[in-house]
Amino acid sequence: MSFFSFFYSNLARFKKFKGLGFEAELWEDKQQEAANLIDRLKSVVTVYTREIVMNNVMRGRWGGAESWQKRWDLLHELEGRHSELGQQIDFSDLKHDVESVFIFDLCSPLASSVRQSIETAKTDAAKSLSARFGSPVTDLDGWNKSHEALRSIVSSEENLFERSRSENVARGILSLAESAQQSLKEGFSIELKLKDGLIDRLKVLEGLIEHRPMNVSSQLINWADDHEAFSR
After folding, report:
1. Is the peptide bond before 109 cis (omega within 30 degrees of 0)?
2. Of the spans 20-29, 135-144, 173-182, which averages the highest pLDDT?
3. Which residues contact 157 (CB under 8 A, 6 or more apart)?
4. What is the DSSP letter of 66?
5. For burial by CB atoms within 10 Å, which of 21, 175, 176, 217 has the most?
6. Angle at the Cα of 192 (from 188 to 195), degrees rounded to 5?
């Protein structure tokens, strides 16, 4: 009686029943097994998708013919394919990593141009110090202090690639340029000459990075692909 009570109370839940030899399977059990399998498959799919996208992003970024448009298209295509299959997978971490590399490609040429401009200005400042103190140097204390101040002017941002993940690197480059500009003018009467449009672009990127995730426009993609824009 206990068996038949159990059987009839769960009749709607059985997938199949083979007789009193009792070969029965419950729908809910099979559904749970399927759900567990799908979760494991999602983990595998997430790993493979990440490897495919990040390999594409990191391969031949400098000097290669691959455009950032194709890299973003690949990510969106894979995401769309998974949605078509009913796989609701959270790719926000992957998108963040791709965007971080994108930001590095946007900002790295600007940082390089700023560094070159500052180093050129520091060379001019050193020449002016040589003319000012003469040869041989009579004011050794003044010479040392002036050169110490010149050496303290930072010309480059360190670890730009790693910092692009979590920091507003455009703001850092902009701050570095403005600080060097002020120090060179006040301490050495040297004007820091930056490429036309560089500061304006840094300000645009500063605002976009501050509100990540970014809206990836065709203009941004062109900027990221043109590595030589500010080295000409």
Report:
1. no
2. 173-182
3. 111, 163, 169, 172, 173, 176
4. -
5. 176
6. 170
